[in-house]
Structure formats: structure tokens, C-alpha cells
Amino acid sequence: MPTPIVNQASAVWNGDLFTGSGTTSLDTSKLGTFDVNWKARAEESGASTTPEELIASAHATCYAMQLSNELAQNQTPATELSTNAKVTFVAGTGITGIELSVRGDVPGIDAEDFARIADSAKANCPVSKALAATDITLSASLA
């Protein structure tokens, strides 16, 4: 049985939700500490990160890894997969949806097979499974 791998991140928050702020850190990799605040999350993204941006990054990365594996198992390995995840957050409601998109440079595959494998990867991606309570859409195309 594989050895479980545990990754860790942390957050520090100061003050109340609406006027407070904090940081989130990638503790396992030690690649950075990022500012977070309510305004960036609910009013205008850009100046600091948000939980939804971090979820989008995780989902895009995990999906690309899953798709690359399924394409290789199909004997049609990808040269490149460009993935994007858009996570929509509505204050007072929460995360309302995730839009995944992928454009693949995959020699030897037609658009129909690529779409089928891309959809399978969406269903089998561990992050997609963790976020299964959220509506996840997929747009897949070949380069």
C-alpha cells in the first residue's frame, strides 16, 4: 500500500471578517506566504489571494496531472496540456461553480476521443472528487 503523503498550509487572521486581514502560507513546500482579506474575496480580486484562487490552482494542476495520465494510458501521451479553473464565489452563498478548461497538444488523437478522456479525467481527478458537491463544468479542445 502506498505511503500517505500529507501536505500542510496554514493561515493567520487578524480582526473581524469584513475589516480584518491575514496571510496564508504554503508550509510543506515553503514556497510562499500570501495576503488574504475579505475585500479581495467578495468585492474585487487581484491585490491578494483568496481561498477560491487557491482551490482553482489546485484543481487546474490536479486535473492536468490526471488527464496526462489517462492520455498516456490511452497510448496518446500529451505534448502539452494548458488547463484553467475558474472558481465562482458569491458572498452569503459560497462557491457556486467551477469551470475547468483544457487545451491539449496531443498527437494521434481525434477531438472525440480527447473529449471523452478529458471528461473521464474530470470525474477521476482527486480534487474534482473532493469538490463533488459543487457543479463542475468542462471545456476541452485540441490545439
Automatic annotation (TrEMBL):
GO MF annotation, one: peroxidase activity
A Pfam family: OsmC
GO BP of this protein: response to oxidative stress
UniProt-listed InterPro entries: KH_dom-like_a/b, OsmC/Ohr_fam, OsmC/Ohrsf, OsmC_Ohr_Peroxiredoxin, Peroxiredoxin_OsmC
Cross-referenced SUPFAM superfamilies: OsmC-like
Gene3D superfamilies assigned: 3.30.300.20
UniProt superkingdom: Bacteria
NCBIfam families: osmo_induc_OsmC
Protein name: OsmC family peroxiredoxin
Organism from which the protein derives: Georgenia subflava
